[in-house]
# Entry
Amino acid sequence: MVKSVSLDIAIKDLMIPGNKVAIVQEGNTLEHALLVLTKSGYSAIPVLDREYKLKGLISMSLILDSILGIEKIEYDKLGERKVEEVMNKKVAWMKEDGSFFRGLELSINHPFLCIVDEDGVFVGILTRKSILAHVHKYLKY
Amino acid sequence: MVKSVSLDIAIKDLMIPGNKVAIVQEGNTLEHALLVLTKSGYSAIPVLDREYKLKGLISMSLILDSILGIEKIEYDKLGERKVEEVMNKKVAWMKEDGSFFRGLELSINHPFLCIVDEDGVFVGILTRKSILAHVHKYLKY
Ligand SMILES: Nc1ncnc2c1ncn2[C@@H]1O[C@@H]2COP(=O)(O)O[C@H]3[C@@H](O)[C@H](n4cnc5c(N)ncnc54)O[C@@H]3COP(=O)(O)O[C@H]2[C@H]1O
Ligand SMILES: Nc1ncnc2c1ncn2[C@@H]1O[C@@H]2COP(=O)(O)O[C@H]3[C@@H](O)[C@H](n4cnc5c(N)ncnc54)O[C@@H]3COP(=O)(O)O[C@H]2[C@H]1O
# Structure
């Protein structure tokens, strides 16, 4: 029997669903965001608005860099600033009916991609880990 | 002309050489490590000893998690602790003459792999970005 794995798997079958993704809201403080990042163990997570629309991404690097003074990190500024002031608005995203190959192409420069439905509502993320695992399966068989 | 890219590229041709990699020493304080991570913009970097041998990896997550009290991050502890107390000793590594396919397999669970020579001396890192870029080139042509 010829064993074969198709490269063209549906994004929906590879993505982590929204209810399993750590997220913050754009109006949260940096202090809250850093606590969510630290507790979840992730270095970057999506930022959503109240209607679950994608607004950007926030990371430990962006937060710490924004409070970096001369030779010292100024932690007392964390409570004063909001996520929307520091987040990266150019977050990588694609529609849930997009192709695997397009996901692979985008993942070259992004550790994860946000997946949205046709109304622009956030439905999950596609990670480099799941892309690499599928490529490995495809190349092995 | 049949255009084709071989999957089997030498690790040496894909890796980031050691002199371009941000690293810390195991004896540094967590405060110093967090400053190096924040200034470099990387979320995790290799930890070496004085003979440039690989000891582990340190990340923003590991540092902040180690000073996480109840509902608050205790920043004043950063100056007291050393990298070797908090680093992850199970860092992914391979020899510079290893195969690309082995690198792909390891990168499924590791954002980067440390590359060492036959004496165990650190010579660079292989990142998911460069693995994905090469896979993309291979699948496209
Ligand atoms: N709790 C855990 N258990 C097992 N392995 C873990 C882990 N946390 C991190 N890793 C490993 O480390 C990689 C990098 O994690 P990082 O947090 O920097 O980067 C992550 C994070 O920024 C984001 N991410 C992944 N899962 C997430 C989730 N459930 N919620 C929010 N963000 C997530 O996507 C990036 C890429 O994820 P990916 O899985 O490709 O790659 C992950 C995975 O291989
Ligand atoms: N200054 C920059 N310029 C352009 N893109 C940037 C960048 N910093 C980060 N990125 C992008 O974000 C990805 C994740 O970076 P991160 O720092 O979490 O995770 C990085 C970091 O932990 C480590 N790394 C990469 N280059 C490094 C270096 N020169 N020195 C030390 N560690 C490095 O390897 C991980 C995976 O790197 P990879 O390139 O696959 O994936 C990188 C790259 O796609």
About this structure: DSSP finds six helices and seven strands in chain B. The first strand of chain B starts at residue 16 and ends at 17.
